[in-house]
Amino acid sequence: MDNCDLDYLSMSDGELNPSFRSDLTQYTATVESRVKTSTLHLQTSDGGASCNILFGDGSRTVKLEDGLNKVEIEVVSEDGSSKVYSIAVSKLSSRAAQLSDLTIERGHDLHPGFSPATYDYTCSARFDCCEVRVHPQTLDRSMQTAVNDTACSEPVMLNAGETVIIIKVTSADGANTQVYTVNVTREPVPLAVAFCDVKDQMEFECPVSLSALYKPVSIHQSEPKTVFSAPYIDMLTRRSKVDPFTERPLREGWKVLESELDQRMSNAPVKCFFSYRGCRKQMRYAEIGAHAKECHYKPSSDLDSVEVTETNWYRNYFASSSNTEIMTHHTLEIRNWEKRLQTALGEHDVDSLIAHAEEHFKLYKNRLPNPGDVMQYDPGQSPLDHLEQAAVHYASAIKVKPHNAKLHFLLGQTLEEHYYATEMYGLKKEAQEDDQDLGQAKSAGRQEEILAICRLHGFPGTPTAENQLKALDTELQDLRQQGQSAKADYVQTLFLWLSKKAGKQDGSSVVSDEKCWLHRALLKYLDACSLNADSWEYNLHMGRLLLLQGKSNEALQHLQSALGLQPRQPAIRFYTGLALLQKEEAAAVSKCEVVMLLQQGLEYVMAQFFISHDHNEQQQWDGGYDRSVVNAQFLRGCLSLAALLSKISSSDQAMSPEQVYHIVSGLAAQGISRCVNQGEVLQQLDSVLLEAHFALLQGLIQQQRDGKQPWIVKRCQALTALIRLSSIGPCRELLDMQEKVCQMGVLALPRCSRALCLLGLAQLAQSDSHAADERARAALTDACLSFQASIELEGSHQTGEAPKQLTKQTWWKDHLDAEKDKTVKHEAPEPKPAVKSSEAPADGKKRARGRGAPARGVLTSTVKTSAPTRVNKTATAAARGRTGVHLVTKSDGAGKTAGKSSIKAQMSSCKSLLQEKPTTSAVEVGKKSFVPRLGLARALARTADSKKQACHFYQEVIDMAPEVHDAYIELANLLLKDDPLAAVDVYSRFPLKPFCEQTFDDAFITGEIVHILMKHELYEHPQLLPNLIAHGKVMGLGCLDKYIEALEGKFMTSLLRRVYAGIHDKSVDDEELQDFFRFKCWI
Ligand SMILES: [Zn+2]
After folding, report:
1. How many domains, in total, are found in the chain?
2. What is the pLDDT confidence band of residue 502, given thresholds at 50, 70 and 90?
3. How high is the pLDDT of residue 1036?
């Protein structure tokens, strides 16, 4: 009687949402644009009830308009009660172009999550993912969708770095379109890639990692254009916001994405990582990650134990029973710092303590910061808090069960992690911060003071740490003699601070410090070993850290015991190899065995990148093997491997030293870009990177390869930039390396303006580091010559005689003499016909003909005469590299075995090399640059009688590059003493940007103007007012306090009023200001 329900309700087009239920009265439905009418199907529950359609003409066939149609159905029961069901029907407009969903197959999530009105998305993919399928969906089937202008069913091929996918949806009537974009970023391929074609290798090499570029970006208007991998240019510009190559300050929008290059590079053919093991496959760069996963030549982690057990040292070691047990005269003791850790209260169950520790360790890992992150954590929630809690729980477990070796070991690993937490991630307790590591600002301030003291004692520029300490010491003695004890105390603080800081750079001292985390970890591993000498794991870690301490004999004992227990374990093999190499009587050890052990360790790492990431398995190698890229000890071991490989004639399937160096530089670059903190981890990785770079540069120079000169110069430039931006403070080794590298660049292209300029900079730095002695003067003269040559050769071709400024330099003469000696020595006995028949003529012809080959210089003429010598010298080293010609023509044993595998590839790469036209950059015309002028100005300013000339070149720099602060500051400083107004004039020429864009560097200039004018009481000077305002605006009014006081004292009230008005952007007549002026009695 009173039932006014519907029994069912549906529409001929469009589905009700939610599904119909008698008791629900509100629904929505969407119909496509082509639908004109839709018929309602419905029935009342009670036969006696009636219903009316409250829409349109009341018919059950409803006419639908575009947009929202509110269809209501009123059901009236027999007793007159009623109920209204309503359906909000949205009819899609035929003009609408919109996706209803967008997915990318196989779990690639979009960021942000899909929403129809959001048009730009990003998405990340693994390095082995070569293509993706995109599934766009529309509500209206009449809409058309296309992915990158093709049918949606086609997969999209991914570039090696970034791929932009464009999804276009067109409205039903074809009139409107909407574009959605998805930017897919692939992870970088973890290992250094070798392109088949040398030209590709040259073009696609990232100057930082010396591996293939990843997400290439160039610097706007850089000349010549230099391209970097995005993560590495980010890393370098975090250190200094300048173009690493030209040192020009970077402005907004300096980053230019090189998508076209990325695409071209992704399609370039590359060799398999395992080509040295026989894989001949070539593939597109974009596909190498996927190939490596499937490659049958991938080294197996299942090593043959015979390789170890059959070696002499192994037999010797395990033959005598006295050796099998390490005499650990170690008594277990709980150290004070350990006692402080045993504070997990109320818990006595070891298992539960371990579970807590593991939980904390996980939290620590999850919360580690990334470079550039702002580190802010709630109290007790920082990663370091969790790591400490993990240590506390393990230590407390040890208190319960002091003879459980595993617990000691786990605590050791946690303590070792502490080292990375502090050094790599910069995590520190607030309290720790103050005395050891000052805040950044304070430490920069101290450094400034130290440099000022250095200048006072004849060390200009940035002297080495040794010289800085020397200067501080001299100052300290002076002050003591003068009886200025307060000042002397302060200088002593500086001295201690600096020596501590400098001491940090010495890797070997680190582990021996009782307070140091690594040392504590070592003690715990020792405890574990003493409780259970039969664990390969404890022995491995013990040995690894002992090696870091330089105790190679002791380390070897532990590692050999570990290897005896587990002869197939690649990590133990690697570190054993390293220990054998470092052992005092290393000569007795077979180098071949060491190479095998080290290479197997490296190969294990290489293969690990290409298996599915099972974290448990990775744990096997030094406590978290995902560490390999930040593990400087491992990377250094690989450097030793490469050095060995280039010395000995290798066995079957040996890697080329070049490939190992490339892998090391690639991994070190990855590690560096992960470091959050400029600590010891970063310094060590930096030095590994520099060493690998240097070795590869030397290798390139030794190779017989036409057209390589620009490549050499590019690498020299990259290495110089890395040295300059390195986190390692200036020291003798670095300065020497820098000078050497720059000389190499000049030797390659003696008329290259850029190379000469870099040499000048290196010589200037050398001169500064030698204070005021004879070497310093010689270096300074050379620097001037190099800069002059660089300036003179701007805009001229790089072919021809070496410039006269070069031939005057001692090192150049020495080099020529050395080359001559070599030629004389080797020429007579060694005219090998085999070499001459193929290599020499091909090379010679090319030289004679190649207009672009930098042939006629002094250098190349020596190269020419000494060519046969070089071939012989480099034959063994290069045999396994890409200079394949030697392999084919030479019959000595060195290259025989390894050569076979890839002879074809090498032949083809050689061919392409010989056919190669001189690259455009080989005859590149050097552009004018301010850098050599700035360098020359600095060099000239160092001696009293050339100051005038220095001023001239500073002026030139200012004309050429008005945005470079240094030129103004240094020129003004030169002038200040004799003519303060001239200094003001120099500063005044600086093109200041609008206030809101001014930086602290700009404020330094305005501040200097104000300082000089105020000091000389030149209140009427036209520059005073604008610079007071500019300085006050950028630095805050507080910075002007002392000037305002001085001006008040001189009753300069009109000036004061204008300064205040200017800083507040108000007129002097402003009422509020007038009140203030009256209060101040300035009116
Ligand atoms: Zn392969």
Report:
1. 7
2. low
3. 80
